[in-house]
Amino acid sequence: MWVTAKVTTLSQVNAIYIHTHTHTYIHTYIHTYIHTYIHTYIHTYIHTYIHTYIHTYIHTYIHTYIHTYIHTYIHTYIHTYIHIYKPSRVWKPAYKTRKHGSVIVIHSSSLRTPTSLTRVNICGQLVETSPVIRDLGFNVDTNLTMTSQVANVCRSAYYHLSRIAKIRDSISTTVCKSLIHGLVTSRLDYGNAILYGISDRHMHRLEMVQRSAARIVRQIRRGDRQSMTTILRQLHWLPVRKRIDFKLLVLVHRAIYNGTPEYLAALLRRHTPPRSLRSAGGLLLEVPRVNLERFGRRAFACAGPTLWNKLPRNIRDNSNITQFKKQLKTLLFST
Known about the structure:
By secondary structure, the protein is mainly alpha-helical. Helices cover about 60% and strands about 5% of the residues.
């Protein structure tokens, strides 16, 4: 019984040893060597390396490239080059410095400036006459043809249009419209009432500037056959000639209902028929008689009432300036 018990004990010991040694060795090998090594290799080398590569190299590099190079470059180009670069060309008017100023003698193109008027004595100072003078940003010539003013507007507008066209593919339509309104359209509209009655040749040059701006906004090539009238209507842009009429009519409306500015309101007189007529209460203005077609018809006292009397009565009777502009713009688009 003792021997059997001892053998049984040795067998159990061997079994326990084999089980313990084998299981522990295999478990340690699997857990320590295989599991830990593979886990460490996968987690440390593959996962961390790939994550670091993707996050650091690709994501950060692409994000930095897009944000720094493309976005910052385009923003810097628009802000610095268009708005700041060459400020004398963009904003500063090209005034010509003269010692004692200059005087202009306005006359018809069929006449010549007399030789005796090449210099004018003003307060003891001899002031030379000039064929073109610049005042409040306008170039006025002796014949009031506005040739120099139209040339300067077109040159400045095409200068900015060429710069905007180079970055058109990198900006949205909204940004492009904002740039064109701020740099091109504002120059076409600045004081455009003085351009009323200019020749068709000069008006065509201004219209070509507006059409070029519309092509850049809509990304239309010059050779594409599309109606520019339809494109301008889609952009809700009035043609240049109608923009001039719009400005004059707004000035007349303010002079009638608000009395401002006073120097323009003093030039307008209401039409009073000699006998009782239906047109007596239609708020019509008197159109003065003029002798010179080129100069007289273009004066505000004549051009303003002429355009005002052509408006429908419901538009003339509207004293609200905001509603008047909406109705007037709708009328000009429909005609």
